[in-house]
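Continuing from the previous page...

OK, I double-checked the sequence for LysR family transcriptional regulator against my notes and this is the correct one:
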Amino acid sequence: MLDLHRLKALHAVATYGSVGAAAEALMVTPSAISQQLAKLEKETGAVLVERNGRGVKLTDAAGLLAEHAEKILALVETAEADFEALRGAVVGRLSIAAFPTAARGIFPAALKLLNEQHPDLGMLFWEREPERQMREVTRGEIDLAVVQDWLNRPMAIPEGLSRAALLDDVADIAVPADHPLADRREISLSELPDDRWITSAPGTVCHDFLLFLVRSAGKEPDIVCMADEYPTQLALVAGGHGHALIPRLGRGVLPEGVRAIPILPRPTRRIYALWRTDAARRPAIRAAVDALRTVCAQLETTLRLA
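Thanks. Re-ran it with the corrected sequence; updated structure tokens here:
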């Protein structure tokens, strides 16, 4: 009989293209993946991997078995979901991921609420960027993802996923305290006397949104500093190196020497929970979404007043 753990290892190698990438996705060592593949070769009596330079290449037999493994693993997940739904208990293990500011701003309270309400539910939480989460929840490597999109870049939901809206998160402009507009209650971007910006790296959702927003105001941003973490961006603002677009969620207390000014019109990102539609019957999925909605409803009032 084929071993599910070995099939999962083979499927991960086929999906990610290498033993190392498969090991990272499954959170095991590369040697553990190699051992599972070697045992699967003995189990099937077929050659599954061939040396290819410094890596390995899957044989045709492995490709065929990996296709069946994908179907088998999906059936196992469906069976587990149906069984949990029949029992009606929030049990088992739930893997959840969120992008950094949601991880900081939502999940400490959400995980606490889940632990209090469902002590028999085991949870594993990761901080992940939205693009990686989308891939992992689609492939079944995580059960629930919390992702974001902005006005200019709406999120395309792959077939087979369901989503729930959690929160609309407004962003303000952070400027040095001695900036000429620092005492204003709100501004439009066209009023800024200079265009030196601090933002995340090119290709990220936040970088692309900043370009879209500033250009929509008839200006061309002069990006002078790039940092992916908002606390780093705020420290650079405090140092007088430029201004930054900072969402309110997870922002925390502003450092000394920084002012946050609301912008007209309000730039807003939308935050969602995503899960595989086939797993929606799991009580654990429903419980996690309910907890996230509860926490986000409480946050919405706080963020509105920030």
